[in-house]
Design a protein that fits this description.
single chain, alpha+beta, Extracellular Endonuclease, Chain A, eight-stranded antiparallel β-sheet, two-stranded antiparallel ribbon, globular, binds 2-acetamido-2-deoxy-beta-D-glucopyranose, hydrolase activity
Length: 274
């Protein structure tokens, strides 16, 4: 078995030099319970894997749809803590523009200055700030919300446009906020570690002249590790009304399998109760 161990060490060395837009989530597998990623039924031709990096640290993982210019999902560990929502500036993902660019999220302005590129070049593979400006009825809805992070830096890292979708503003400020701030807080009370994946099902409408897809549904699945046992829960909301359904993780996976229609969806390791 020694050769297996050596192979693992060698493989992990190969990963060390890897950039933020990655070929596999191995670089940031810590954000998935027991390193198990959701099934490939959620991926499309135009999915990019992003290990979300800021101030020399990884904070969460995002699967991003570069054609619809919204995330498929963000995966993170729930770590609520005291402190306020930062007044952060929105950032973008440099490596979606060019894989040779830095592996940390940046503001549009900083990237434009560093590489003398235009807004149009940045906007080809991802949403830019302007896409969300002056959109009445639609907010920049975080998938990984800043309120589920425990430090100024980890909260600031959620302010990347690769982590947001156009979300119905009533839902964003109403039932979804209540899900994030009440339901999750309550359900995670006895958890030593809570792994959450929040995603968005692409819809038929767009904002910004067809550039940005408006999801039909926003969903969340969680797996909680307690001292001697495991628990799980899930939620789903239609993006045109202010209501969130509490469902089981098994129900969510079933509904996502039907909504995406690309095969069975599994979000978490089999230890997480369905
Ligand atoms: C994937 O790519 C193929 C070939 O480029 C294309 O025919 C197909 O429609 C794409 N599928 C999706 C889901 O975008
Ligand atoms: C990416 O950036 C490098 C270095 O700045 C440049 O040589 C290359 O042409 C760029 N690639 C694309 C596809 O723009
Ligand atoms: C939080 O982080 C941002 C970005 O790094 C920084 O500009 C701001 O000053 C920080 N705020 C506090 C209270 O530390
Ligand atoms: C969902 O569950 C939470 C508690 O786990 C509860 O407070 C909330 O009212 C429920 N929401 C709905 C719409 O049933
Ligand atoms: C879990 O175990 C820790 C350390 O053994 C203990 O302090 C804590 O109270 C336990 N939590 C629950 C919910 O039993
Ligand atoms: C989107 O359009 C397709 C085809 O017209 C339809 O089958 C589907 O139900 C629509 N989805 C939503 C969320 O309206
Ligand atoms: C958002 O949800 C509210 C509350 O259900 C609804 O009245 C409104 O029409 C929705 N807005 C959009 C843009 O879908």
């Amino acid at each position: 078995m020694l050769w297996l161990l050596l192979l693992q060490v060698w493989a992990s060395c190969l990963w060390l030099g890897h950039s933020e837009v990655v070929n596999s989530f191995s670089t940031c597998s810590q954000f998935f319970y027991r390193g198990i990623f959701p099934s490939s039924a959620l991926q499309t031709n135009s999915s990019a894997l992003i290990c979300q990096r800021y101030m020399n640290q990884y904070f969460f993982a995002t699967l991003y749809n570069t054609q619809k210019r919204i995330p498929v999902y963000s995966a993170y560990i729930y770590q609520r803590g005291p402190g306020d929502r930062p007044a952060a500036r929105w950032m973008i993902e440099p490596q979606l523009v060019n894989r040779t660019y830095p592996k940390q999220m940046e503001t549009e302005g900083a990237l434009k200055n560093m590489y003398h590129i235009s807004e149009i070049q940045i906007s080809q593979s991802q949403a830019i700030n302007k896409d969300y400006d002056y959109q009445t009825g639609w907010n920049r809805g975080h998938l990984n919300p800043s309120g589920h992070q425990n430090s100024n830096v980890s909260r600031t890292a959620t302010f990347t446009l690769t982590n947001v979708v156009p979300q119905n503003s009533s839902l964003n400020k109403g039932a979804w906020k209540s899900y994030e701030q009440k339901t999750v807080v309550q359900r995670s009370q006895n958890c030593q570690a809570t792994y959450i994946i929040v995603g968005a099902v692409p819809g038929n409408r767009t904002i910004a002249n067809g550039r940005i897809n408006i999801p039909s549904h926003i969903w969340s699945g969680a797996c909680c590790k307690m001292n001697n046992t495991m628990s799980a829960w899930a939620a789903i909301a239609q993006n045109d009304r202010n209501h969130v359904d509490n469902i089981t993780l098994g129900d969510l996976e079933g509904r996502l399998s039907r909504l995406y229609n690309r095969g069975p969806v599994s979000l978490f390791h089999s230890d997480c109760p369905r």
